[in-house]
Amino acid sequence: MLEEHYGIPPIIIIDEYDTPIQQGHMRGFYDKVILFMRNLFSGGLKDNRHLSYGFLTGILCVAKESIFSGLNNLKVNSILDNQYSEYFGFTPEEVKAIARYYHAKEKYAEICAWYDGFRFYDCEISVFIEPYTALQSDAHVYLSSQNGK
After folding, report:
1. pLDDT at 149
2. What is the pLDDT of residue 63?
3. What DSSP character marks residue 44?
4. How far is CA 28 from CA 13, 19, 24, 58, 62, in A?
5. For 114-127, b where at least 16 C-beta lie within 10 A, e where not — what string?
6. Residue 97 or 95, more confident
7. pTM exceeding 0.70
8. CA distance 146 to 144
9. Fewer CB within 10 Å: C terminus or N terminus of the chain?
10. Are 33 and 23 contacting, i.e. CB atoms less than 8 angstroms apart?
C-alpha cells in the first residue's frame, strides 16, 4: 500500500530484531519465537516485492543459517566495519541540532550526561550518542518545557 500510495517501494527497519529471540530463550518459548521471526523475515523481507530493502539492527551475531537462511543477498555490517561506523548513532553535532529543534539547546550537557555514547576509533567522528536515548531525552526535555507554559 505504501508503494502504491507514494510511488516508491518502502524500506522496512526492524530495530533490535534479536530482543524477542533473547526473551524467548530466557523464558521458554524459543522455538515459537524463531518460527515467528523466520516467517516475518520471509514474508516481510524476502517475499515482499513491494520493498526497496530491509534493515535490521541487533546485538546478536547474524548467521546466514537459522532464521536468516531464507533471505537472499544478506549483507552484514558491524560497528567494527570502518566503512559504516559513522552511521551508528548520532554525532554530537546532530544531537545539538535535535536539541535546537526542540528549543532545548541549553539541555545538551544534560543529555550527554544521561548517555555518554560510544567511541569508534577508526572513524573521524569519534563520539556517538545512541539514537533512542538522544530522542528520548530530547522528547522529555521538550515535553517538560511545554508543561511549564
Report:
1. 41
2. 66
3. I
4. 27, 14, 6, 21, 22
5. ebebeebeebeeeb
6. 97
7. no
8. 5
9. C
10. yes
Answer yes or no: is pLDDT of 78 > 80. Answer: no
What element of type H or E holds 144? helix 131-147
Q: Which residue in the block uniquely carries the three cell numbers 527497519?
A: 13
| Whole-angstrom distance, CA of residue 120 vs CA of residue 33 | 33
Average the pLDDT over 40-57 and give the result. Answer: 86
CA angle 85, 91, 92 (to 5 degrees): 150
CA 13, 18, 19, 20 torsion: positive or negative?
positive
Q: Which SS3 state, helix, strand or coil, does residue 129 take? A: strand
Residue 118 has a pLDDT of: 60
CA 96 vs CA 19, 32, 140, 144: distances in Å: 30, 43, 15, 18
Burial 28-66 (b: 16+ CB within 10 A, else e): eeeeebbeebbeebbeebeeeeebeebebeeeeebeeee
